[in-house]
Amino acid sequence: MEWFYWLVPWEESILVVAATGSAALFFLRGCAVARPWLHRKLCFWGGLSLVYLVSHTQLDYYSQHQFFIHRLQHLALHHLGPFLIILSRPCPVLLGGMPSRMRQAFHLMAGWKPVQYLAHILCNPVVAVTLFSMLIGFWLLPSIHFTAMIDWRLYRVMNWSMFLSGLIFWGLVLTPGPVRLSPGSRIGMMLAIIPPQIVIGAIIFFTSHELYPIYTICGRAIGGINALADQQIGGIILWIHGAMMSAVGILVVILRELMLAEYPKNGQKVA
Amino acid sequence: MNKNFVNKNFGGGPNFSRRRIAAGLVIVLAMGACDSTEQGHVKGVTGHLPDLSFSLTSDKGQPVTAKTYEGKVLLMYFGFTHCREECPISMARLMRVMHLLGADADRAHILFVTVDPNRDAPGELRRYLMQFDIEQATGLTGSPDEIGRLAKRYRNAYRPHFPPGGDGDIMHGDAVYIFDTQGRARLLATSADPEETLAQDLRDLLPA
Q1: pLDDT at B20
Q2: Which chain B residues have a beta carbon less than 8 Å from that of A225?
């Protein structure tokens, strides 16, 4: 039962349980109706369990008390998790699995003007790229980071904002979606998020003093790694791995376009 | 091939590159310039950390709660008596802060919360604190879970249960959590703060 220890939440959050639980339930029910391909199911379950594991298990303790693990957590919440979930094109399956009243409520909400305006703004490519990049920079401003790591409410806002902005961004660029952006602009958007991540990662890596003393003040989870080494590993993760997700995304879009060009009927299967 | 391949926003036009450079510059400038800690003051945490609340055993073996110390400015530190590195240094620093406070020291109190409750019984804590010659200090102990809850409440790295296969090293930070006379978290002092600054900021928390 040793593995069970790792699954015990470090800090319980009803919102995380409710959100992942209902997404899992709707997807399971939806699978019976929509019958998605196996690779779509794998992507969805992989993405959802990754997001759950990094935010609602003992791993959260390490994210709160070790800077580089905090960066890995955000890599999962902002990049890999939403990326996999979007890759599974879950919307039709989730809608299919919802109780009919809830589905009607969603349709009703989608008709409201304020919701339409908000969606219009958030789905604008410039806004999506700016939001995606600025959120990384914002939560890594030393004073903001300090406060986010001591205030549990702000800490949760930080993690949720990262996950939601990830969903919006990858939702816009990986699939044509309702906004119908051209493949060129979607690739452009993925290229546009690379430089800010490289710049922020490089600043963190090359700074010779401790930018985030909160980890020293409250104590580190892993002994034997000093403050600067922790900071440098965190910087490298943002610098290289964050930007690497764009490369994978671009490959997915290119592959899908090639498949659509050669086999218009089967191309839909990819991505 | 899609006709709209070159989108108006991302066609490589001047808008796109200018925006990227501007965004990069904003981030660089903000990261370089932003540090809200006022020079000469301990970091303020008012409204961000919860009010003091605990139910533990004092070094005299009596049950105590946060209410016991109401009316005093409290300095809470997580440590353990067998610690050879940070704890003695931090306690020596706090001792000097108390001396700097002079007559005001009677209205302040240090709470040394052990993160090694299995070894640090009340008597052990009493003996340890007597070495530092501070009257206004109390050692607190309790069950590992009670102390774990208190540490988690203040985002301290101590946790009562180690992962399977872990070496059981005791992790704790060097933070001194400072509460005002009503038990509200006000300041988060570290080993980097000079004792004079800490003493001055503590005086500011004392009611006139």
Answers
A1: 53
A2: none
